[in-house]
Design goal:
CATH superfamily of the largest domain: Pseudouridine synthase
Distance between the termini: 21 Å
Radius of gyration: 18 Å
CATH class of the largest domain: Alpha Beta
Number of helices: 6
CATH topology of the largest domain: Pseudouridine synthase
Helix content: 10-25%
Number of domains: 2
Length: about 220
């Protein structure tokens, strides 16, 4: 392929830039010259799932793909918090309260629709020209402004305390880590996201994606 898109199922423990670098390496070897490759929205290293990789002339349209709505499945751990909102941060016990399933469903329902959300400080959002996660790593104090996002649906798949599994269809710019934390705040339990998988972007589904080994990437 010289121009177009590739749907990749990103594994956990790999950065989005790592996926792009590996795809570029394979395509460059096939084409005999360095391939132009980019992504259309990052997935955190702990997350897995659908990435749209743009190749060649399609790279100029990367921004259009990043604005599309997305669907995720996530596991949320109640009773604890994380400095990063995910397993990679410093984990602290917060509460021993055990919410009922009815309380869980009520909390989820209150997050459906157009809501205000504050992105996590460990994110790629720029604050004063610097990436937020870089400022956070250096211990700088700052605040990321709230933003309006839309949660089209938020369904409870399973609940076995302290873990609840959800599926959510959201607008571009929504942070599931922040959603998990907000659910924990509403329940009074604290929470963070332990697992995250992106299963669709607009009309593209994870079942259409190829794994890195299938693409010829073994490391």
């Amino acid at each position: 392929m010289t121009d177009g898109i590739i749907l990749i199922d990103k594994p956990t423990s790999m950065t989005s830039f790592g996926v792009v670098a590996r795809v570029r390496r394979v395509l460059s070897a096939k084409n005999g010259k360095k391939a132009k490759v980019g992504h259309t929205g990052t997935l955190d290293p702990f997350a897995s799932g659908l990435m749209i990789i743009v190749v060649g002339k399609e790279c100029k349209n990367a921004g259009d793909y990043s604005k599309l709505d997305k669907t995720y499945e996530a596991t949320v751990r109640l009773g604890q918090t994380s400095t990063t909102g995910d397993p990679e941060g410093e984990i602290s016990d917060f509460s021993e309260t055990i919410p009922s399933q009815a309380e869980i469903k009520n909390a989820l329902a209150k997050h459906i629709g157009e809501i205000s959300q504050r992105p996590p400080i460990y994110s790629a959002i720029k604050v004063g020209g610097e990436r937020a996660y870089k400022l956070a790593r250096h211990g700088k104090e700052f605040e990321i402004p709230m933003r309006q996002i839309t949660i089209f649906s938020l369904d409870l798949i399973d609940y076995r305390y302290p873990y609840l599994k959800i599926r959510t269809h959201v607008s571009s710019g929504t942070y599931i880590r922040s959603l998990a934390e907000d659910i924990g705040k509403l329940l009074g339990t604290g929470a963070y996201c332990t697992e995250l998988r992106r299963i669709s972007i607009a009309n593209w589904d994870i079942n259409q994606a190829v794994t890195l080994p299938s693409f010829g990437i073994l490391d």
